[in-house]
Amino acid sequence: MFQDEGLVSYILSYVQEEEVLISRTVIKSFSSPEGDHLTLVNVYRASIEFLEKNKTENGNEKAEKNLRKWFKDNFINNRSSKHARDKLEESRTVIKSFSSPEGDHLTLVNVYRASIEFLEKNKTENGNDKAEKNLRKWCKDNFINNRSLKHARDIYNQIRENVERMGHKISSCGDDMLQLRRCLAASYFLNAALKQPDGTYRVWQMVRL
């Protein structure tokens, strides 16, 4: 079961509201060598442990207030310079240029397509090496992780090669995002969850006959 409002959503909303930066140093104390998802699990568990202990000692309302302070003390860099705050605001503005009202997956598609368009145009004008260098600068200017983007390109190329090897026809959905959304829904079906009356979510379970 999953809670309606997770810690990740709280972190993001808090950062947006307060215009602050998350401290990388403190996050390392929660980090897991097995990936970001387990790092977030560590953060979530620590916050729940802190909250439950405070509820017992101080009651619900005071405990929630203390949790906000715990979060601020552990994750917020209060000494953020004006330059850092300006960069944060700039990054939000840039991200909006890629955002899709249909969700984060399509926002990422917009980022990927924009990067490929930039890269191909640069390859024609400047050659491969210079184009890759220019792409790294483009990523920096647009607050995009170049390493993650390169990883996405590598995965795309692997999938494309496999599909071609199987003799299937490759075609883009273009701007018809309904096809893409249906594909995502089909692939994530086993992870679908149904909202319960108490506000929590319960994962669908397949029943074999």
What does this molecule look like?
The chain is mainly alpha-helical and 209 residues long. The chain folds into two domains: 7-80, no CATH class; 83-191, no CATH class. Helix content is 67%, strand content 3%. The chain contains nine helices and two strands. The chain has helices at residues 7-18, 24-28, 36-58, 60-75, 82-98, 104-126, 128-141, 146-165, 177-187; strands at 193-195, 201-203. Strands 1-2 form a two-stranded antiparallel sheet. Strand 1 and strand 2 (201-203) form a beta hairpin. Mean pLDDT is 76; it is low at 1-22.
Order of helices and strands: HHHHHHHHHEE
The biggest beta sheet reads:
2 strands, antiparallel
Parts with pLDDT < 50 across at least 5 consecutive residues:
1-22
Which radius of gyration do the C-alpha atoms yield? 21 Å
Structural class: mainly alpha
Question: Percentage of helical residues?
Answer: 55-70%
Name the overall outline.
extended
Structure summary, number of beta strands: 2
- Spatial strand sequence of the major β-sheet: 1-2
Number of helices: 9
Q: If you average the pLDDT, what whole number results?
A: 76
**Number of separate structural domains:** 2
Tell me the strand percentage band.
under 5%
First-residue to last-residue Cα separation:
24 Å
